[in-house]
Amino acid sequence: MSEIRITPSILNADLGNLDSEIAKIAPVSDLLHLDIMDNKFVPNQTFSFDRAKEIIANSVMPIDAHLMISDPDLMAPKYAAAGAASVTVHIEAVNNLSKTINEIRINGAKVGVALKPKTQLADVLPYLPDLDLLLIMTVEPGFGGQKFMMDQVSKISQAKREIDQLNLKVLLQVDGGVSKETIQIARNAGANCFVAGNAVFKSENPNQMLQELRKLAIN
Ligand code: DX5
Ligand code: ZN
After folding, report:
1. CA geometry: angle at 56 spanning 105 and 31, to 5°?
2. Active site residue 64
3. What residues have CB less than 8 Å from 128, skipping those under 6 apart?
4. In the sheet where 86-90 sits, what is the strand order?
5. Which ligand is located closest to the Cα atom of residue 183?
6. What local confidence, expressed as pLDDT, does residue 164 receive?
7. pLDDT single digits (tens) 188-204
């Protein structure tokens, strides 16, 4: 069994006290998932690039930036240059994926590509060998607190098969509705990297919830 990663999403954390929210979960998290939304690609807006740069600079944890924006070709390399550990772009939004993958990498970050629920896995397969992370969305991107979409489980299994067949080390990330109830479903399908927002930050003890999620993902 490959190593697993738990990446809490701060989308629904207390954004007024972000530093203390991050400090709370840092000891039990591998990466911090930063959701960037522009109110164009998705009907919601989160952090500006300047605010994101501050978060990246101040975080004690490496940042996993998930760009839900309409101009990722332009912005993704900037997030990499700002110090994000990984930068994930949506295949539906990108204009020149090969070029953007390259530019993220030469600016020093790992490269991720995300698929919305209605997007076919086949669309990303030509690029799979060039990726560090493949993100299968298990909700429609835009908001935290939605229900895990069971109909995405077969896409996760299919992605796992493709990654194994090519003997790649691509992380298989799931994002949306991951909780104590759903994490093992995603893990059993082959996911090894789990974003969790509401399950963590709406729980009484985020730190303990993260440890429980990790235990469930390993066992
Ligand atoms: C949704 C975001 C997610 C979100 C996950 O578009 O990409 O990262 O924060 O939140 P939960 O875990 O509450 O579904
Ligand atoms: Zn996300």
Report:
1. 75
2. no
3. 134, 162, 163, 166, 168, 170
4. 5-8, 193-196, 171-175, 133-137, 110-115, 86-90, 63-68, 32-37
5. 1
6. 98
7. 999 999 999 999 999 99
pLDDT higher than threshold 90 for residue 23: no
Pick the closest to residue 114 from 102, 127, 106, 105 (CA basis).
Answer: 127
**Residue among 121, 123, 129, 82 at smallest CA distance from 101:** 129
Is the confidence at residue 1, as pLDDT, over 80? no
Question: Is 198's C-beta closer than 6 angstroms to any atom of ligand 1?
Answer: yes
Residue 40 pLDDT > 60:
yes
Under DSSP, is residue 104 helix (H, G, I), strand (E, B) or coil?
helix
How far is the centre of ligand 2, averaged over its atoms, from the C-alpha of 44 (Å)? 12
pLDDT in tens, 100-128: 999 999 999 999 999 999 999 999 999 99
Mapping DSSP to helix (H, G, I), strand (E, B) and coil, where does residue 115 land? strand
CA of 167 to the centre of ligand 2 (A): 26
Cα–Cα distance measured from residue 74 to residue 152, given in angstroms and rounded to the nearest whole number: 29
pTM of this structure = 0.97
Do 142 and 116 touch, CB atoms closer than 8 A?
Answer: no
C-beta 199 within 6 A of ligand 1: yes
Would the CB of 9 count as within 6 Å of ligand 1? yes
Q: For residue 12, which atom of ligand 1 is closest to its CA?
A: 9
> What pLDDT does residue 19 have?
86
pLDDT recorded at residue 2: 59
